[in-house]
Amino acid sequence: MTQTATQQLTVWLTGATSGIGLAVLQELIARGHRVIATGRNRERLDELRDSLGDSVIPLAGDVTDPADCERFREQLLAMAPLDWAILNAGTCEYMDVSQFDAELVSRVMNTNVVGTARSVEAVLPALRASGSETRRPLLAIVSSSSWWFPFTRAEAYGASKAALTYFAESLRADLAAEKIDVSVVSPGFVKTPLTDQNDFSMPFLMEAADAARIMVRDLEKHRRHSHFPKRFTCSLKLLACLPRMIKDRMAAAMARSNTD
């Protein structure tokens, strides 16, 4: 059994201080939920608690830091029962293949993939301790719609999100017997400080508040996959079904147009 939208949930949210994470935090608080908010900036977390109220519980730290994640594990277990964990912390850097940079790939993978894995390690004991006949915990991992198509310059970012999707779906299989649900969230383009730095057209760009509303609604239903906006993500899913040769030609044409 899952909780209804009218019940107060306790949620651990990483990457809570900006972008989609901040919008999700605001949406959860508006719906009456209690949020353990994690980000690297303690002062910003305190400001959010002051502005949004005591339902925000700051838990500052870096998801890529093993010591911080061990502290998260201890504190989250102490605060159980925990209904949801939304692992949203991430970064994006684009690759200029003429100056291939393996360190860029390492940075993106470390934050997006290893940081998420460390977060799972930290939160699983609390989720396991929270399950009951009336409580089915939810682990949500924020991926991206980019993994459906080989976008130019997205070697590191797209690969990290493809890895996260596979990671989450494997976790879903392995956690099913423990009655812990796993959701994958694959947003399209959402207006955030990260996408504000993009120097290319972003079709169907969404406001962060709209993305958060859809995402939280889907998670309340424990949907296995939340993706939005549908006009964009469904188009990418169709592109993913094309023969490999056609997809490769389309991707190469996009790469050439970006170098004109």
Sum up the structure in keywords.
8 helices; single chain; 260 residues; two-stranded parallel ribbon; 9 strands; alpha/beta; Rossmann fold
Give a structural overview.
Strands 3-2-1-4-5-6-9 form a 7-stranded parallel β-sheet, with helices on both faces. It has helices at 19-30, 42-52, 66-78, 102-130, 155-175, 208-220, 230-240, 244-258, and strands at 10-14, 34-38, 56-58, 84-87, 138-142, 181-187, 190-191, 206-207, 225-228. It has one domain: 3-Layer(aba) Sandwich (Rossmann fold), CATH 3.40.50.720. The mean pLDDT is 91. Helices cover 48% and strands 14% of the residues. It is an alpha/beta fold and 260 residues long. Helix 2 (42-52) links the parallel strand 2 and strand 3. It contains 8 helices and 9 strands.
Short description:
It is built from eight helices and nine strands. It has 260 residues and is α/β, with parallel strands linked by helices. The model has no long low-confidence stretch (mean pLDDT 91).
CATH topology: Rossmann fold
Annotated CATH architecture: 3-Layer(aba) Sandwich
The helix tally amounts to: 8
Shape: globular
Instruction: Return the domain count.
Output: 1
Unreliable sequence segments:
none
SS-derived structural category: alpha/beta
Give the percentage of residues in beta strands: 5-15%
Question: What helical percentage do the residues reach?
Answer: 40-55%
CATH superfamily membership, which one? NAD(P)-binding Rossmann-like Domain
Largest sheet, strands/sense/barrel? 7 strands, parallel
Order of helices and strands: EHEHEHEHEHEEEHEHH
**Count of strand segments:** 9
The side-by-side strand order for the widest beta sheet comes to 3-2-1-4-5-6-9
Average per-residue pLDDT, rounded, comes to: 91
The gyration radius over C-alpha positions equals: 18 Å
CATH class reads Alpha Beta
Q: How far apart are the first and last residues' alpha carbons, in Å? A: 54 Å
